[in-house]
Specification:
The structure is a single chain. The chain is an alpha/beta fold. It has 15 helices and 16 strands. 44% of the residues are buried. The structure holds pyridoxal-5'-phosphate (PLP).
Length: 446
């Protein structure tokens, strides 16, 4: 018998974020093709992509508009180095991102983590060029996530990703997260934001001289389990960063491109950051691309006769024309189809379908922002996330809880069937997982 694709994968591929030994019991699913929100495996079984394939896929898979743009671009220019050269896709994309955000001078990388690295390096180098080289440390929010390369991991506060590599890192400081779930009796989400902003204020008052930047995920700390917080925190953070001369970096890698309901999450707070990191949805989930946008003031601090005062950072594929073209096609879909307005309706209808899950007696803190839903499950079941994922997959639904938090972050293209599939599957997978918990409890009973 010929080995299956999954078997060959286990022999040849080291899969990400995976204890490979667990695949002995549950091999990876080999996907043959995909259409819209559906992934279809080599046996023809389909799965609804409830997490947009790690939050990247905005308009479903194999979207014809992005596909056509890529085919056209492949016939013109596949790649050229961006040092000393330029091309239409990178110029047009940079102009469009500037128009959308009010920040410019787009600098490109390929992954979210490289965008984090670029923003941190630019911030510290800005202070060095401005005669304040001691401002070279960073502060982030507790449970923040900004990627997993060594520099990005230093501002990522998630123990399981960081513990083994702690000796390699120059760890950043963290301040308490304004997580709305941490409200004390009688406190609102706004009260939590104000209380946590006061902690940030005290921290900055003490450490601003050594601090280059505060980095935050605006409104939703996704990797922490869709932790949501009040926009007032961002307004306070902006004011404090101004007062203490610290850059504000907003990491919109997960929240950008309509995910939070607005084009970018920080726009709900009405603030202007010093740096914006973008990736994930930027190309609609087709090709790796990231970008960092910044202010004229930052840009000007590098503009000099001395080469060493420039930002001498590069990646081989910086500004790749194919990836930029996919991003342009993605932005065209936003414009042509009035996606943000349509998502308001889609989110309302999906929230209604998901109401039985939100009201489930074992669910706590049901929450939603834009096209993100999350539910904390009150359970003692070991490996809840893994077991829930397994049940959901059996039902043809891709969901991967984080800890005890189930979440959905679907592509923006769910028809009635797909909405019902997601809502019913998410609830049925919870019931199936809780049934396992009940069985285990029975077995444990004397
Ligand atoms: C995913 C993510 C990153 C890292 O992006 P990669 O492309 O996985 O390196 C950084 N920040 C946030 C907020 C993310 O969600």
């Amino acid at each position: 018998m010929n080995p299956t694709l999954a078997q060959r994968s286990l022999a040849s591929v080291w899969h990400p974020c995976t204890q490979m030994k667990l695949h002995e019991a549950a091999p990876p699913i080999a996907i043959a093709h995909a259409q819209g929100p559906w992934l279809i495996d080599v046996d023809g079984k389909r799965y609804l992509d409830g997490v947009s394939s790690w939050w990247v896929n905005l308009f479903g898979h194999c979207h014809p508009h992005i596909q056509a743009a890529l085919i056209d671009q492949l016939g013109r220019l596949d790649h050229v180095m961006l040092a000393g050269f330029t091309h239409a896709p990178v110029v047009e994309l940079s102009e469009r991102l500037a128009a959308l955000t009010g920040l410019g001078h787009a600098f490109y990388g390929s992954d979210g983590a490289s965008a984090t690295e670029i923003a941190l390096k630019m911030s510290a180098h800005y202070w060095r060029n401005s005669g304040k080289p001691e401002k070279c440390r960073f502060v982030g929010l507790a449970d923040g996530y900004h990627g997993e390369t060594v520099g990005a991991l230093a501002v990522t506060d998630i123990a399981i990703f960081r513990e083994a590599y702690a000796p390699l890192l120059r760890l950043a400081a963290t301040v308490v997260s304004p997580d709305a779930r941490t409200a004390l009796p009688g406190e609102s989400a706004l009260d939590v934001a104000l209380r946590c902003a006061a902690v940030l204020e005290a921290w900055l008052a003490k450490h601003h001289n050594e601090t280059a930047a505060l980095i935050v995920e605006p409104l939703v700390q996704c990797a922490a389990g869709m932790v949501m917080y009040d926009p007032e925190y961002l307004r306070r953070a902006r004011a404090l960063c101004d007062r203490y001369q610290v850059h504000l970096v907003v990491d919109e890698i997960a929240t950008g491109f309509g995910r939070s309901g607005t084009m970018f999450a920080h726009q709900q707070a009405g603030i202007r950051p010093d740096f914006i990191c973008l990736s994930k949805g930027l190309t609609g989930g087709t090709l790796p691309l990231s970008a960092v946008l910044t202010t004229d003031a930052v840009y000007q601090a590098f503009f000099d006769d001395q080469v060493a005062r420039g930002f001498l950072h590069s990646h081989s594929y910086t500004g790749n024309p194919l990836a930029c073209r996919a991003a342009l096609a993605t932005l065209e879909i936003f414009e042509q189809q009035d996606v943000l307005a349509r998502n308001v309706e889609l989110a309302a209808s999906l929230s209604e379908a998901l109401a039985p899950l939100s009201q489930h007696p074992r669910v706590r803190h049901a929450r939603q922002l834009g096209m993100i839903w999350a539910w904390d499950v009150d359970t003692t079941l070991p490996h809840f996330a893994r077991r829930y994922h397994h049940h959901a997959m059996a039902l043809g639904l891709l969901l991967r809880p984080i800890g005890h938090t189930i979440y959905a972050m679907p592509p923006y293209v769910l028809d009635d069937e797909a909405q019902a599939w997601l809502a019913q599957g998410a609830l049925a997978a919870l019931e199936a997982t809780l049934a396992e918990e009940a069985t285990l409890a029975e077995e444990a009973a004397p």
